[in-house]
Every structure is written in C-alpha cells, then in structure tokens.
Amino acid sequence: MVIYIMTEAEMQLADLIWEKEPIGSGDLVKLAKETLNWKKSTTYTVLRKICVNEIFQNKNSTITSLISREEYTRRKGERYLVENYNGSLPGFVAAFLKKKKLNKKEIEELAQMIEEYREEK
After folding, report:
1. Helix, strand, or coil (residue 46)
2. Model pTM score
3. CA atoms 8, 54, 92, 114: torsion sign
4. Which of 15, 45, 50, 90 is the most buried (most CB within 10 A)?
5. What pLDDT does residue 121 have?
6. Three-state DSSP class for 5?
C-alpha cells in the first residue's frame, strides 16, 4: 500500500490525534487552538485531508487512527526506499555509510537486528 506523505501541518495535527485518540472533534479543535494556535476552520481543513488519505477517520465526531504512528513511519520509510533506492535497504545503507561512520555499539546493534531477523526466518 502506498502511503500518503503528510505535510508538516498535517503531521502536527496527526501527532495530537495519536497522542489523545480517541478524541472528539470539538476537543481536537480546542487542543489545536491551544497547542498550534489554529482556527477551527484550519483544524477541520487539515483533518479532512488526513482522513481522505486514510490515515485517520472521523466517525460520529470522534477521530481515531486507521494506522498507528509506527506503521505510518514504517510505510513512509518503505516509500522512501522505493523512490530513492529501488527498494534496496542495502543500497540505502551503503549510501548512508559513505558519509557516516558507525561506532562499535551501532555496529553491534545492527548485527543483532540482522541475527534476530535470521532467527525469525
């Protein structure tokens, strides 16, 4: 499934929803006013966009997520790999390591992740 990449404003509202869900739309408007200094119309416009893109739903004036923050981040990462590295995680890691040197702890953590993945298979 291709994930819609939220704008910065959409992400700000999404973070509020993920933190407080389920949340009534009126409570979300108040929260967005307090934390983001948004008008009611701005909140509803942004909410409509993220609901249309199937990240959240608004049923009976209660907003809940259709996917978790973690799932959104995972899908966004997968999309980035596909668009920039032909879906190749090793290609991404190789490009990343050209600019950044890993310390011993980071290398051990990656090796452990790979080993755990092998054991799952």
Report:
1. helix
2. 0.81
3. positive
4. 50
5. 72
6. coil
